[in-house]
Each structure stands twice: as structure tokens, then as C-alpha cells.
Amino acid sequence: MKHKESIDFTALADEFDQINASVKSQLGSQDADYIRRIIKIHRLAEISGRIILMLCFFSLWFLLPGMLLLALAKILDNMEIGHNVMHGQYDWMNDPNINSRNFEWDIASDSGSWKRVHNHEHHTYTNIIGKDRDYGYGLLRMSNDLPWRKKNRWQFFTYLNLSLLFEWGIAYHELAAERVFVGKKKKDRTSSLSDSELKRMFFSKAGKQLFKDYVFFPLLAGPMFLYVLAANVGANLIRNLWTSTIIFCGHFTENVQTFTEAECKGESKGEWYYRQMLGSSNLTGPKWFHIMTGHLSCQIEHHLFPDIPAFRYYELAPKVEAIAAKYGIPYNSGSFFKQYGTVLQRIWTYSWPDKAAHKINEDHQQTEN
Description:
The chain contains 14 helices and two strands, in the order H-H-H-H-H-H-H-H-H-E-H-H-H-E-H-H. By secondary structure, the protein is mainly α. The radius of gyration is 21 Å and the shape is globular. The N and C termini lie close together (12 Å).
């Protein structure tokens, strides 16, 4: 890897800007047809799943396929549809429903909260300690930049619980960061909304989600109440585990780097691109795998071009990797099991004060020197 001082960031920015402009100039029916096709598949999976669950009246063998179809629908809604639509990737279509302003996803988190914390903060300040609240989600110590605390000893179990309840962790993320319920106002409060507004939106969306999944659809099933309730719980747990795992694989693998506010002050467009590449990881796999991840398997490309339709990331990846090689910038990509293994290793390593993972931060230290 080249030292940062030897990289021509103006030229780097020009190359990525050209890719961005080229793709956006080609947006059209292919992109609109794709997202509408995915929405149809999502709806078919949900409707089929709910119909199959009613067949549990005849045999419990229908419970598992019904639950898996619901999980598929929830994963598609969360990853390939909701996340990408709320990034504004399809705003150019001027569709009244498929746009970042009106879309609400099938998850406990309010879309407005997600867009404030994720779209703005995380994508602007990616991996800047003290600015990016998505780094460790306020629960996990993932680098030496954060001081070790006694609670970090059991952070592996904290991670497992976060994964199982990921939609609720995301829903509560903004309120926790703003200390809405603990009575300790932050002096550097980032949200422009009042505590009462944040509480109202949180409880409104959470209440609707709980009612839909655990009251309305089970009651609608009549004598199949318990089976539909169990299937909804299972589908949500599967979706939570999947989305959490994919997101962690894109942000917390072995070689992902962190940054200080000082070193990013006055950052140029090229340096911003550079930081996105060093703070992200990719996953390799077949086409269906990329769709199921919402194309966050191409996390590097997503961080570089968050408002480009995500299904185009796969074709952009070789171009981005070639530019990375040209400028001597690491391009962190690997198989799902390889990358996830390093995520688990990172969580475990930073659970302990006497295991400062110099190996994980080695590339970052070389960059600073």
C-alpha cells in the first residue's frame, strides 16, 4: 500500500466521479424494471408464506416453509428494497411509492431515524471515531481507538444479542446516542428533533410493527394463531441475524481501518473516497447471494456511490478494484466465511485489554506514517 502522501487524490476523485456520472447517465427502464421485479418477488414470497402457514391446520410440516418464505420477504424488504430505496437510489423514477421520502420498511426502525443516523452520519463520517455512531453501535469495542471497559469482557454475547434483536437495536440507536431516556443531555447534540419528537416516532413505528407481526396477522389466522405468531417471530429472528451478519462483514473485518477527526479535517473529495475504501469490505458469491445482501456484499462500492442503484455495484466492482490497484489502495474482498471469521475474531480480540490487536491496525498505522 502506498503512503497517503504519495496518492494523487485529485486524479482519484476524477476517476470515481467519472464512474458515478457515467452510471447515472445510463439510469432508465432497466433499473426501474429491476426494483419493481424485486418488489413483486417480495410480495409473492410474503403472500405465499402466509397462505402456506394456514395449511398448518392440516400438518405442522407447513410451518417451516411458511416461516422461511416470510423471512425471505423480510430480508428482501430490508436489504434490496428498503435500504436502497431510502438511499435515494430510485428517486429519479418519480414513483410515488418507490422513493426515499415516502418509503417505510417492514422493520421496527422508523425510516426517518435511519436516514438521519445512517444515510447522513455514517456515510459522511465513515469510521471516524467520535463522529460515526454506527462504528460499534455504541455497544462494542472494535478497535484500540476506544478505551477498554469491564463490560467489553462479555461483548461477544452482547454482539449475539444485538444480532438477534438487530431491528430493535437500529430502532433505538438514535435515541440511545442522544440519551433521550437517561436524562443526560449531550452538549454536542446532533439531532435537530426534540426528545418528545424522537420518542413519538420511535413508539409509533415500534407499536405498529409489534401490532402487525404479533397481534394482527396471528389473530387474522384464527385457530392458526400460535403457528402464525411463531412463524413471525422466527422470520424476524432470521432476518435480524442475516442483516446483522452482512452489515458487520461490510464494516468490521480484519483490515477495515478507523480514522480520527483530526486526520479527516479539511478532507478533499479524493480523500473522502480513499477513506470509504479503507473503511469497507466486500463479500464474494453468486448472484442470488448479492441480491439477498441488498448488494451490500459490495460494501466498498456502496460507500463510494450510495445513491447509485445497488444492483449495478457488481458490474462496478472490477473497475473500482482496478483503480484501487492503480493507486496502491487496499481492496478488501473475500468469501463470506473468511470475512465473517475475521469479524468474530475482531469482536473477541477487543474484548480484552491485554490483546491489543496490532495486526488489525497495522495498515492504518503504516498509512499515518
